[in-house]
Structure formats: structure tokens, C-alpha cells
Amino acid sequence: MDINKVYKDILHKISPQNIFKNEMMANHTSFKIGGPADIMVLPRTIDEIVSMIKYCKENKIKYYVIGNGSNLLVRHKGIRGVVIKIADNFNDVDINDTKVTAKAGVLLSRLSKLIMKESLEGFEFASGIPGTLGGAVAMNAGAYGGEMKNVVTGASVLDSHGNVIYLNNEELKFGYRKSIIQEKGYIVLDVNMEFKKGDFQKIKSITDDLTKRRTSKQPLHLPSAGSTFKRPENHYAAKLIEDAGLKGVRLGDAQVSDIHCGFVVNLGKATYEDIYNLIKLVQKVVRDKFDVMLETEVKIIGEE
């Protein structure tokens, strides 16, 4: 791929301040790890997203669509092709009484504050979940008894042929940390949600309580990808890891958090290899001791 040619081509589709060459992925992942992406674009509209994907397909250029990079581990050689980041510029929110429509790139932390401000209840669980709305819908993110499937009424998505289609709640086929979006490789564009009017002080109190519980029980002061492993059937990943004697274990600057064993954290200078090898170590020890294979929540991308 000729980076300069691609850059010139997409100048006709995206404004220059939203196109970057050799952009370090470490600046766009919550792990703070990752080498350069050949090209990164920050689209502002659905049309820009559609035109970028169409361009990449027509020219046989690899492309990756990411949100806020909160569940990504990017290799140090970086990413060949185009990274389309649906976050920074694609984050409008419209609230009309109890109905909320939001673009996929809005951060859940910001969205939850806007919803709380309108005294709408039912989204308190999402206030501390890292990442964007699009990613949360795709994986049916949840915490403290709440899940996206309980508040989403439907979503506009981009299918593999570049068509924008609308899926209602039932058609999204939500399951535990999954949806049809992952299964089909769809891209979430905007999301419709509905809530109930509630008491502002009660909503704020619940949100504050959940925030306090998170900050005291999770290593939020260190770079990580949130929960590293999915919850295995009939088990809890963090308990298995702690019972396996892995709490606080380090490889280089990667560590199994001594606050919450479900988190692998970057102590400051962790490399991709540190994080990857520690994840593999945890999986092996837990499998050997308890005959349970932990699946990762984290997605690994980039050139090997």
C-alpha cells in the first residue's frame, strides 16, 4: 500500500485535520500500547464512514474499525492499512423526553452523565464502563446487574455490503457479551434507547455508589483493557485467577492486578509481549489447575 497515495485519495472524502499518517496506536488504546497505523481517519458522519469503507474495499486495502480502543491490544509493529476510529468526532446525543438517540462514538461515561442530567433511570450501570456506545452494544456490555439489551430499542448498523440497516432489540440478538453485530461483523452507527423518568437524587446516589465500588475494587489508575477475561460458565474469572495463586504476578511491566485479578494492567512500560505472555500464562495455569479455559475479552490486532 502506498501511504502517500491513499492519503491524497481520502483527502477528497475526509477533512485533512481528521487524517493521520503513521499514527501511534498507543495514543488510541486504553492499554497505552501499540505501534503505528499507516493511516488513521476520524470520520464525522455516516456518509464519511460509508465512503471510507467503500474506498478501502474497492482498492483492496485492509481496514479496521475501532471505537475508543478500550478492548484492544495492538502489536508493536502496528497496523498496515487504514484505521477508522468511530469515537472522537462521531458522538452526538439527542434526548427527547424518555427517548435517547446517540451516535456510536460517544463514550459511555459522557452518555451516562447526560442521561442522568435528564433524570432518566436505568443507565446507572454503564457510568463506569470504559469505551464507546457502539462497542457496548456490539458486546452487550453490562455491570452490576444491568446490560445494554435492557435499554436499547434498536440500532442503525452498516452491513458487510455497505448498506445501512436498522435492527430492533429482538433482531440484535443480544446474549451474554455478544450480539448479532459481532456475529455478522456489522458496524454500529447510531443507537436508540428508552428509559423511565426517575428521581435525580436517587439516580445520582446509585451512580455515585457504583462509582465508589468500582474505584475501590478495580485498578482504574493504571492502563488496562478493563476485564481481561470473559466470565466462564459457572465460575468467576477473577476468583479462578486468585485461587490459582496469580494475584500480583508480573511479566516485565505487565501485572495481574493485586486489586482485582480479572484485570491485567500496564504498570508503565509494558510491551505487547509482556501483556500477551502474561495473558497466556494466566490461561495455562488456570486450565492446568481447574480445567477451565479462560477466553479473553481483549482483541489482539496488528502486524506480527
Automatic annotation (TrEMBL):
<dbReference type="InterPro" id="IPR003170">
    <property type="entry name" value="MurB"/>
</dbReference>
<keyword id="KW-0961">Cell wall biogenesis/degradation</keyword>
<feature type="active site">
    <location>
        <position position="177"/>
    </location>
</feature>
<dbReference type="InterPro" id="IPR016167">
    <property type="entry name" value="FAD-bd_PCMH_sub1"/>
</dbReference>
<keyword id="KW-0573">Peptidoglycan synthesis</keyword>
<keyword id="KW-0963">Cytoplasm</keyword>
<dbReference type="GO" id="GO:0005829">
    <property type="term" value="C:cytosol"/>
</dbReference>
<keyword id="KW-0560">Oxidoreductase</keyword>
<dbReference type="GO" id="GO:0009252">
    <property type="term" value="P:peptidoglycan biosynthetic process"/>
</dbReference>
<comment type="similarity">
    <text>Belongs to the MurB family.</text>
</comment>
<keyword id="KW-0274">FAD</keyword>
<dbReference type="GO" id="GO:0051301">
    <property type="term" value="P:cell division"/>
</dbReference>
<dbReference type="Pfam" id="PF01565">
    <property type="entry name" value="FAD_binding_4"/>
</dbReference>
<dbReference type="GO" id="GO:0008360">
    <property type="term" value="P:regulation of cell shape"/>
</dbReference>
<dbReference type="GO" id="GO:0008762">
    <property type="term" value="F:UDP-N-acetylmuramate dehydrogenase activity"/>
</dbReference>
<dbReference type="Pfam" id="PF02873">
    <property type="entry name" value="MurB_C"/>
</dbReference>
<dbReference type="GO" id="GO:0071555">
    <property type="term" value="P:cell wall organization"/>
</dbReference>
<keyword id="KW-0131">Cell cycle</keyword>
<dbReference type="InterPro" id="IPR036635">
    <property type="entry name" value="MurB_C_sf"/>
</dbReference>
<keyword id="KW-0133">Cell shape</keyword>
<keyword id="KW-0521">NADP</keyword>
<dbReference type="InterPro" id="IPR016166">
    <property type="entry name" value="FAD-bd_PCMH"/>
</dbReference>
<comment type="pathway">
    <text>Cell wall biogenesis; peptidoglycan biosynthesis.</text>
</comment>
<keyword id="KW-0132">Cell division</keyword>
<feature type="active site">
    <location>
        <position position="297"/>
    </location>
</feature>
<keyword id="KW-0285">Flavoprotein</keyword>
<dbReference type="InterPro" id="IPR036318">
    <property type="entry name" value="FAD-bd_PCMH-like_sf"/>
</dbReference>
<comment type="function">
    <text>Cell wall formation.</text>
</comment>
<dbReference type="InterPro" id="IPR006094">
    <property type="entry name" value="Oxid_FAD_bind_N"/>
</dbReference>
<dbReference type="InterPro" id="IPR011601">
    <property type="entry name" value="MurB_C"/>
</dbReference>
<feature type="active site" description="Proton donor">
    <location>
        <position position="227"/>
    </location>
</feature>
<feature type="domain" description="FAD-binding PCMH-type">
    <location>
        <begin position="33"/>
        <end position="213"/>
    </location>
</feature>
<protein>
    <recommendedName>
        <fullName>UDP-N-acetylenolpyruvoylglucosamine reductase</fullName>
        <ecNumber>1.3.1.98</ecNumber>
    </recommendedName>
</protein>
<dbReference type="GO" id="GO:0071949">
    <property type="term" value="F:FAD binding"/>
</dbReference>
<dbReference type="InterPro" id="IPR016169">
    <property type="entry name" value="FAD-bd_PCMH_sub2"/>
</dbReference>
